[in-house]
Amino acid sequence: MEDKNKSKKYKIKIDRNLCIGAASCVALAMKTFALDSENKAVILEEDGDDAEAIKLAAESCPTKAIILENTETGEQEYP
Ligand code: SF4
């Protein structure tokens, strides 16, 4: 039996060319995203926060630099 809470829902990608360091993703999911020394977002842990928080964080990104792929279907879920 798989533990649903442990299986991560999203594979996360960050398009660093799009990221402008607005940090709203960090504010909404601070265990998942952080800013590096170039002020670009990096992933700390793909399942650092719950899936809803990660989705909200992606939606909050002004440049849509956060790409979420559903690990079950393999389909891009956002944007
Ligand atoms: S919200 Fe978007 S632009 Fe801002 S730091 Fe996160 S990925 Fe970069």
UniProtKB/TrEMBL annotation:
<dbReference type="GO" id="GO:0046872">
    <property type="term" value="F:metal ion binding"/>
</dbReference>
<dbReference type="GO" id="GO:0051536">
    <property type="term" value="F:iron-sulfur cluster binding"/>
</dbReference>
<keyword id="KW-0813">Transport</keyword>
<dbReference type="InterPro" id="IPR051269">
    <property type="entry name" value="Fe-S_cluster_ET"/>
</dbReference>
<protein>
    <recommendedName>
        <fullName>Ferredoxin</fullName>
    </recommendedName>
</protein>
<keyword id="KW-0411">Iron-sulfur</keyword>
<keyword id="KW-0408">Iron</keyword>
<keyword id="KW-0249">Electron transport</keyword>
<dbReference type="Pfam" id="PF13459">
    <property type="entry name" value="Fer4_15"/>
</dbReference>
<keyword id="KW-0479">Metal-binding</keyword>
